[in-house]
Amino acid sequence: MPRILAMILILPVAELIAFVLVASAIGFGKAVLLQLGISLIGVAMLGSLFSEAKVRARSGGGLMSIALDKSHSLRGLAGLLFTIPGFITDALGVLALVPEVRERLRRLIGGAEPVPPRAPRREAGRAQAEMLDLDRQEWREVQPTGRREV
């Protein structure tokens, strides 16, 4: 816990040093515009993930299915890191998008497997055809009762 607290306290100082180094290399105005552009990309990424979550929740997967999906969670982390102003957090966000790094982070964190969306709920009054896959020994043909054949 003390290490995490120290890292959180050191991060703003390191970000300021990184900004000064980038600004001295490309100019102050360009560094500000670059930082603003990257933050807007982060906001767009988070908005895209939020839209996906809404669609998935409506289709029956629920919000937890997208929260537990490792791919989406790392994309969300990258978007959040891009949104936070600073070049160090941006570099960490880029690393969260690299497939090899994402796989190593997944193994390190040990998150859940992607949760498949559930079947859509039936509407009242509407019959839906269902399919069951049974072996030949698991079923027998039955003649319907009370029905007239046409």
Report on this model:
There is one protein chain. The chain has 150 residues and is mainly α. It has a domain at 36-116. Helices cover 65% and strands 0% of the residues. It contains six helices and no strands. The protein has helices at residues 2-26, 28-58, 63-68, 70-83, 87-97, 99-109. The chain is elongated, with a radius of gyration of 25 Å.
Compressed to H and E, one letter per element, the order equals HHHHHH
How does the helix and strand content classify structurally?
mainly alpha
How much of the sequence is in beta strands?
under 5%
Low-confidence stretches: none
Tally of alpha and pi helices: 6
Label the overall shape.
Answer: elongated
Strand runs, count: 0
Distance between the termini: 75 Å
**How confident is the prediction overall: mean pLDDT?**
80
Q: How large is the radius of gyration?
A: 25 Å
**Major β-sheet profile:** none
Protein name: UPF0716 protein FxsA
Transmembrane segments: 7-26, 32-53, 74-98
Organism: Hansschlegelia beijingensis
GO cellular component, one term: membrane
List the helices and strands and how they pair.
Elements: H1 2-26, H2 28-58, H3 63-68, H4 70-83, H5 87-97, H6 99-109
Pfam families: FxsA
Region (Disordered): 116-150
Organism: Hansschlegelia beijingensis
Brief description of this entry?
Residues 133-150 have a biased composition (Basic and acidic residues). The chain is mostly helical.
List keywords for this structure.
FxsA, 150 residues, UPF0716 protein FxsA
